[in-house]
Design goal:
With 343 residues, the chain is of the alpha/beta class. Helices cover 36% and strands 12% of the residues. It has 11 helices and 9 strands. A 7-stranded mixed sheet has the order 1-8-7-2-5-3-4, sandwiched between helices. The chain has a two-stranded parallel ribbon with strand order 6-9. Strand 3 (127-130) and strand 4 (139-141) form a beta hairpin. Helix 1 (29-53) packs antiparallel against helix 2 (60-73), helix 2 packs antiparallel against helix 4 and helix 4 (114-124) packs antiparallel against helix 5. Residues 260-296 have low confidence and may be disordered.
Length: 343
């Protein structure tokens, strides 16, 4: 791996883009092959059944969540180790309203595997978004698109036809669902936190932002290298079971926006005032003014402090470190990795 030394973080030596090696099956190979062949048609059936049929039917949020849990259960994802900052085990119900993401809040999630989106959808029924390092804007994506993005190459800029909006506008349009942001913009192997997209600084100042870290045991179901479909499904379906370690930090606020808030009692565009009193009155920012350069120029010190606070929370939750490698470095790594694989 010496040839890839430039894709290790200089300060810590962490390599966030390398695939996690899979433990050899050894004598258990026939058993693992049996599990793979047995589970594959089940997973395909429940997955296609949901995305082709069930998600378009009026089965409600509870029905969709139950269907997603069937998808998670098919490959043996049964164990969830959940811990929440400031909440002792067994006392979650007492703190449930303030310690967990609720409608109208933002989830800043780590991104290591397609399972991330499935789990978040099964628990919170959120709106998913795609972030980019070159802009403060996001665009809404479906859960299926969120799954596919874990297998695709990183993108420095949004597609030309993307409908870009601020998080504030998205929350205003969907006040009854939480919003999921993947601020690292691309997948890693879970061993480091990449520099963030500036999209989180468009959150309303009184909206709670919950950092959530998802880690897996075994760790080889992460997809840091795009296009690794077979490796992912083999590692997912051939193991008896998997565990998700979920850590939720205390909420963070976007303190970088020191502007007057909409006064209580006002009613704008048909939304109730008890929601809009958390939004900014100043909405003059547009797509043209929020599009930044490839290096996300224009981030103020106050905005940088907000982004760093969320990144530090994710690093602490995942017991990893923040690294200086980003989307651009990952794109270069993928090209070098692909050239080596073709030889």
């Amino acid at each position: 791996m010496e040839k890839y030394s430039q894709y290790r973080d200089r300060g810590s030596g962490i390599a966030p883009f390398f695939p996690i090696p899979t433990q050899s099956s050894g004598l258990y190979l026939p058993f693992h092959v049996f599990l793979f062949l047995f589970r594959l048609p089940i997973l395909l059936t429940v997955t296609l059944g949901y995305f082709i049929v069930l998600q378009w039917l009026p089965i409600g949020s509870l029905g969709k969540k139950a269907s997603l849990w069937l998808i998670l259960g098919a490959p043996g994802i049964w164990w969830i180790d959940l811990q929440i900052d400031g909440v002792r085990k067994g006392s979650l119900a007492k703190h449930h309203q303030s310690r967990l993401p609720q409608p109208g809040t933002i989830i800043a999630s780590s991104l290591t595997s397609p399972i991330d989106a499935l789990y978040l959808a099964a628990i919170f029924d959120p709106i998913f978004t795609a972030s980019y390092p070159s802009t403060r804007l996001v665009h809404r994506i479906s859960i299926f698109q969120a799954l596919l993005r874990a297998f695709t190459e990183p993108q420095l800029k949004p597609p030309p036809n993307a409908n870009l909006v601020t998080l504030q506008a998205l929350i205003q349009k969907h006040p009854h669902r939480p919003i999921v942001v993947f601020p690292e913009c691309t997948t890693t192997n879970g061993r480091g936190i990449l520099p963030f997209s500036p999209s989180l600084v468009t959150a309303p100042p009184r909206t709670k932002i919950f950092p959530i870290s998802l880690r897996y045991t075994p760790g080889d179901i992460t997809t840091p290298v795009p296009g690794s479909y077979f490796t992912f499904f083999w590692n997912l379906l051939s193991k008896p079971t998997h565990c998700i370690r979920v850590r939720i930090a205390e909420s963070v606020y976007n303190t970088s926006q020191n502007v007057p808030l909409v006064p209580q009692g006002s009613n704008i565009n048909g939304y109730s005032s008890n929601f809009l009193d958390t939004l900014q009155e100043d909405t003059t920012s547009s797509t043209d003014t929020l599009l930044a350069s490839d290096e996300a120029d224009g981030i103020t010190p106050a905005e940088r402090r907000v982004l760093d606070k969320i990144a530090e929370a994710l690093a602490r939750l995942g017991r990893v470190k923040m690294v200086g490698l980003g989307v651009k470095e990952k794109s270069e790594f993928i090209r070098a990795w692909s050239r080596q694989k073709r030889r």
